[in-house]
C-alpha cells in the first residue's frame, strides 16, 4: 500500500458533488476500486477455462529447490549491475522496437502505398488480468502443474484498503490484475497475450509489453484510390479481429487513447472513418510510441523540437539550484547526467 497523499483534499463525484470528509472519501474510493477490481463477467463455458485439458510430458515437473545461499548470490549479482546499465538495456530494447516500426512504415511508403498505423492502448493493462483465463491459457501452453499452482496462489486471495487523512476504508478483495511492483506481473501479462500477433494476421503487428502498433498498407501496383479502398477494408478487418481477441481475453481497450496515423507519399489523404465496435478511432498527425514521435511523413523535426524543449527545461532547473546557492559543481554534474543526458 502507498502512503496517504498530503495533497489530497477532496473528491468530486460525477454529479458535481464535492466530498472533503475523510471517512466519506474513503468510502467512495473503496466503492470505486472494489468495482474496478471486481471479477470479469464471463459467460461459461469458455475456451480458456472449460476446454478439455491437454496432457503434456512436463505436466508433473517439480519446481527446483533454491537454497538461501543461491538467493543471496543472485541478489548480489543484481546489485553489482549499475542502474545506468539497466536503463541502457531497456532503452536499447525500446529503440530497436521503434526502429523496426519506423522501417516497416518507410518500406511500405517507398512502394507508393498508403499506410495506416494503429496504436492501441489497453485500459489499465496490468490491472485487468483475468485470473482464471490466464491460468487456463498457461495450462494449454504446457506450463507444469506445480508452476500453475504457484502462480494461482500468487494471484488469488489478495485484499486491499484505502487510507485517506488517517481514515481507513473496509477491506475489499482484488479479483483481477497482478500485484504492482513485481517484475513477474508484466512477464505474466506478456505471456498471457503472446498469441496476440497470431490473431491479428491481417497486419504487421508489434507488441511490446502493453503497447501495440499495427501496420497495414494498400496493395502495390494499384491506383491510389483503389489502394485506399483496400486499406480501409484491412483496417475494418483489423478492428474486428482486435475486438474479438480483447473480448476473448477479457482485456478492455482504452478507445480514447487508441489512435491512428496515416502515412503516404501522396499529398491528398482519404477520409476513412475508423470504428472499433461502436467507438470512433481518431486520426492524428503526431503520436508518441515507445518514447519516439511518429508523424505522417516520418520526419524527426517534431521529436527534435520536443527533445530540445525538454533539455532546456531540465537545464534551467539544474541552473536554478546554482543561482540559489544550494548546490555544488559535482552535484550539478550528477543532476545533468541523471536528468538531462538520458
Termini separation: 30 Å
CATH level 1 class label of the largest domain:
Alpha Beta
Care to count the β-strands?
14
Mean pLDDT: 83
Quaternary structure state of the chains depicted: single chain
Shape: globular
Helicity level: 40-55%
Report the total helices.
11
Largest sheet: 6 strands, mixed
Which strand order does the major sheet show?
8-9-3-10-12-11
Count of distinct structural domains: 3
What ranges have pLDDT less than 50 throughout 5 or more consecutive residues? 1-5, 84-88
Fold and architecture overview:
The chain is an alpha+beta fold and 342 residues long. The chain folds into 3 domains: 102 residues, no CATH class; 149 residues, 2-Layer Sandwich (Alpha-Beta Plaits); 38 residues. The chain is 45% helix and 15% strand. It has a 6-stranded mixed beta sheet with strand order 8-9-3-10-12-11, with helices on both faces. A two-stranded antiparallel ribbon has the order 1-2. A hairpin with a 2-residue loop joins strand 8 and strand 9. Helix 5 packs antiparallel against helix 6 and helix 10 packs antiparallel against helix 11. It is globular and about 60 Å long. The two termini are 30 Å apart. The N terminus is likely disordered.
